[in-house]
Automatic annotation (TrEMBL):
This is Uncharacterized protein. Residues 15-26 have a biased composition (Acidic residues). It comes from the Bacteria. Residues 1-38 are annotated as: Disordered.
Length: 659
């Protein structure tokens, strides 16, 4: 144990010496499961799902793709296939859930139910799977004004659309090789048969960028596109065009057959979406629904129930929309996958780990059952869920924000609540028994951090204009222990072990509080480096460790990361002795946790742990938890273990269940 940075009580045993039992502590923690015991105290629960971006459905079967994953719904069961290419997929057409075509970055790929394979190296603007007599199995595609047909073995290029139809990127296929193609400003080309010649018709709609064409069973051609406002158009079998504006802008629109006319899903800016129906007459299209609840993805009609339309939202959520219902349209949820994403967190225990998300605070409930979705078998553990604990009240007439949280248990602690009002005020609130009440004592500043080691050692830090202030709660009252007149720069990190508090400022100096006054320890870390940032300041075994970054170079500076340990007087670099942890976190009792980011795309990251004793330059053990290969992980250490929240999974380690 270092003479300067000692480990307080309660840190647990040395790695490998923990005892496992059937029950966990006296706090009512859930019993250790066989899976936890076998995995040395670890469980992994899927807590987020890929953000689906494109959707196909025939009303019974559904496919959705996003972030390198395919959601497959055959009408009876749902499953995800992960580990696919992470494409910017934006078109998905299918005949079934095991025969589909996905257009995205780098070309057109075929889906066989289990994997994607590159089929065409150009990226089409529209894919058509025809069911017309005298037409091959397809698909047909249009890309860069060229029409392509797949004959089952290879792609046949049918030549270019006439040059009068600039940037033709929408296609419809009729019987016996009949083709329609649309380009900019409403130019449309028609090829009546495979051995015929192209004829061009001009709608003369300036700025129109066609998104899709659709040819109905009566030979009418439907077109939808975007410009300053969306435009709907229909050409009847006799050649007469009807054009109708929708009165709203969109950057992408999709046609779905409706029981009468078409339904059009239009994706606007900032996630906004609109759903229209149009019968093709002189009347304007009818806006049936709007808002983010319609999703971020393609909709598709087809061979399902008349008037039914599948829709998709990020999360993902699948909806069945009944267009035949009276306004507003009715929406039935087919499946809603709950997703919680990593955010700022602190914990009083593994089952009292919290994250702050805007004005909401979520708690990790290890024994809460995973939400049941009919036909879906959960991935990973069947329990574990991020559950909303509370929502901050509005203060000072503005929208509230939880600035920080210090939990003392599963339903109590201290909360800083801010406002987006002009004053920027921050208030201290007490959270007890699940109820929030404004604290009777308020700091005469705007603290932004809450830290501490327990209910009788809670700290609030403020760093305004680069000068630090600190207040401490001893279980009875709050006292200012660091004033602005002392000239301490902003606090970049702190370690609290119950017996002492150590802070590191943006000047690289470590200061210790041990009940009466502040003592400056040693020399500054990297004192000759400007613009240094302290990324992490933790206790690892018997020593303090700081991970720092700074720019190096002039015109195009590179950000350099280093790791140093502190012996109470001097800093020593251990950058070359330990892995490059990102992130790095500790519980203040000597346990520290670090993630090593994989350098191979799609490969999982590795989690390491340091026990409560020993030098920080060694003793980092590898943990069995398999972290998903996402770019962010939030490590939330607790006295009895740790919660590691990744993009898709939440991993829990309970020390009492480790063998």
């Amino acid at each position: 144990m270092s003479a300067s940075l000692g480990c307080g009580p309660g840190g647990g045993g040395v790695d490998g010496d923990d005892e496992a039992g059937d029950e966990v502590g006296e706090d009512g923690g859930p019993p250790c499961s066989d899976e936890e015991l076998e995995a040395k105290g670890w469980t992994s629960t899927r807590t987020a799902y890929p953000d689906m971006r494109v959707l196909w459905s025939d009303g019974v079967q559904t496919l959705a793709y996003g972030e390198g994953s395919m959601l497959v719904d055959d009408g009876q069961s749902l499953r995800f296939v992960h580990g696919l290419e992470d494409l910017n997929g934006w078109l998905l057409e299918a005949r079934s859930v095991d025969d589909a075509w996905l257009a995205g970055s780098g070309g057109l790929r075929h889906w066989d139910g289990e994997s994607l394979s590159l089929s065409l190296s150009v990226t089409p603007g529209q894919i058509v799977l025809p069911d017309q007599p005298g037409t091959g199995p397809g698909p047909w595609a249009i890309a860069d004004s060229y029409v392509f047909e797949y004959d089952g073995d290879s792609w046949i290029q049918h030549g270019a659309v006439p040059s009068e139809v600039a940037e033709a990127n929408a296609l419809a296929v009729g019987p016996d090789g009949e083709l329609w193609a649309a380009g900019l400003d409403g130019a449309v080309a028609h090829l009546p048969s495979a051995d015929g010649e192209w004829a061009v018709e001009l709608l003369d709609v300036d700025g129109l960028e066609p998104d899709e064409l659709w040819l109905d069973d009566e030979g009418a051609l439907w077109l939808v596109g975007a410009q300053a406002n969306m435009v709907f158009a229909r050409r009847d079998a006799g050649g007469t065009w009807t054009v109708a504006p929708a009165g709203a802008s969109a950057y992408r629109a999709h046609i779905s057959p409706a029981s009468e006319g078409i339904a059009v899903y239009a994706q606007g800016d900032y996630g906004e979406a609109s759903l229209y129906t149009w019968t093709g007459g002189a009347e304007l299209p009818t806006l049936r629904a709007t808002g983010e609840e319609l999703g971020y993805a393609r909709t598709e009609g087809g061979d399902g129930p008349a008037g039914a339309l599948m829709m998709l939202a990020g999360g993902p959520e699948l909806f069945v929309v009944d267009l035949e219902a009276a306004d507003p349209v009715t929406v039935e949820v087919r499946a809603a996958f709950e997703s919680a994403f990593p955010s700022r967190g602190q914990a009083a225990g593994v089952d009292a780990a919290f994250e702050v998300v805007g004005d909401r605070v979520l708690r990790w409930e290890l024994d809460a059952p995973v939400p049941d979705i009919a036909g879906f078998v959960p991935e990973g553990a069947s329990t574990g869920r991020w559950v909303e604990s509370f929502v901050a009240p509005a203060i000072d007439g503005g929208e509230p924000e939880v600035v920080d949280l210090f939990p003392e248990g599963a339903d109590q602690g201290w909360v800083l609540i801010g406002s987006d009002s002009d004053t920027g005020v921050v208030e201290l609130w007490r959270w007890q028994g699940g109820a929030l009440d404004k604290a009777s004592w308020q700091p005469d500043g705007n603290p932004s951090q809450l830290r501490g080691s327990g209910p009788e050692d809670v700290w609030a830090f403020e760093s305004d204009a680069g000068v630090a202030r600190a207040w401490r709660y001893d279980g009875q009252s709050w006292t200012e222990v660091l004033g602005a007149d002392e000239g301490v720069p902003a606090v970049a990190g702190s370690i609290h072990d119950g017996s002492a508090t150590h802070i590191i400022g943006t000047d690289g100096l470590v200061r210790r509080w041990q009940g009466a006054e502040w003592t400056t320890l040693g020399e500054p870390l990297l004192g000759d480096v400007e613009d240094m940032s302290v990324v992490a300041f933790v206790q690892a075994g018997d020593e303090a460790v700081a991970r720092v970054s700074y720019p190096e170079g002039w015109d195009f500076p590179e950000i350099v990361y280093e790791t140093h340990r502190f012996d109470g007087a001097n800093w020593t670099s251990i950058t070359d002795d330990i892995p490059d942890f990102d992130p790095l976190a500790g519980d203040g009792q000597g346990y520290a946790w670090g993630v090593v980011q994989s350098q191979e795309p799609g490969e999982p990251h590795q989690l390491h742990r340091h026990g409560p004793e020993g030098a920080a330059s060694e003793g980092w053990g590898t943990e069995p938890a398999v972290l998903d290969a996402s770019w962010i992980h939030q490590i939330i250490p607790a006295e009895d273990g740790v919660v590691v929240h990744g993009r898709y999974w939440t991993h829990t380690y309970r020390r009492a269940c480790a063998q």
